[in-house]
Amino acid sequence: xxxxxxxxxxxxxxPNQKLELRAQxxxxxxxxxxxEKESELNEIMGSIxxxxxxxxxxxxxxxxxxxxxxxxxxGSSKQVIRSxxxxxxxxxxxxxxxxxxxxxxxxxxxxxxxKLTKTIQNLSAQLDAQNKHIQELEAQLAEKDVQIAEQxxxxxxxxxxxxxxxxENQQKQETIDIQDKNLHTAWFVFxxxxxxxxxxILQKGDVLKSSDFNKDYFTKIDTRIDKEIKLYSKSAExxxxxxxxxxxxTKDANKQYVLKITSPEKFWSASKYLVxxxx
Length: 279
Fold this sequence. Notes:
The protein has two domains: 16-151, Methane Monooxygenase Hydroxylase, Chain G, domain 1; 184-278, no CATH class. Helix content is 64%, strand content 13%. It has six helices and nine strands, in the order ααααβαβββββββαβ. The strands form three sheets. The chain has a four-stranded mixed beta sheet. The protein has a three-stranded antiparallel beta sheet with strand order 5-8-7, with no helix packed on it. A two-stranded antiparallel sheet has the order 2-3.
């Protein structure tokens, strides 16, 4: 405690040393102010750099959206557009907050205020221009979505029309097939005279003159396919009318008759019913 008091006494007694001490204190104070201003300037420049980096990232994201928008139907492209638009919105909000903070900082700082003011004004103008551009981009994407939705509705309508046409064509084809099958459907029966009478197919010497004959007694055939009928009898006579030359009655190895229809269209032209009397 004694030594510091002595030093202070010596300084007090030496005017030169007192001046040097005061100069040193002033230098220290000035250096502190310079350090504080430098630190403040570094913080401000850091914020400005962050804003500019945000603008750069936004421009890159816009580029990715433009590429993806060239193929909007692809699921991956839609995801790219959605994620990049969300990134742009977030980055724009961050830049807006940083510029607002810089404007507040401008009210209290003494660091090159004029130049800093101009820089912040430029950043604000760039933010406004970017915001306008993003709004235009969002409008374009929304319009594209509407167009795609309308195209989707048109495609759905066309698909529905195609399905309806296919159903109608299928129904028409089924009708045609039924009609075609009916057109080529015929019925035949062979039996003894007594059997034919019993089924009312033969009545008083006339064949199929009444509608009350037993239709279930007949066998249905396809005239395009069934062109040969085995009669299992050595005696056979066609009772229904079928044009001559459209068929033959020949005997097989057992001497039993076989009816062979050589011209189906001509044979069935007079009647779709064939009645053969055998013994």
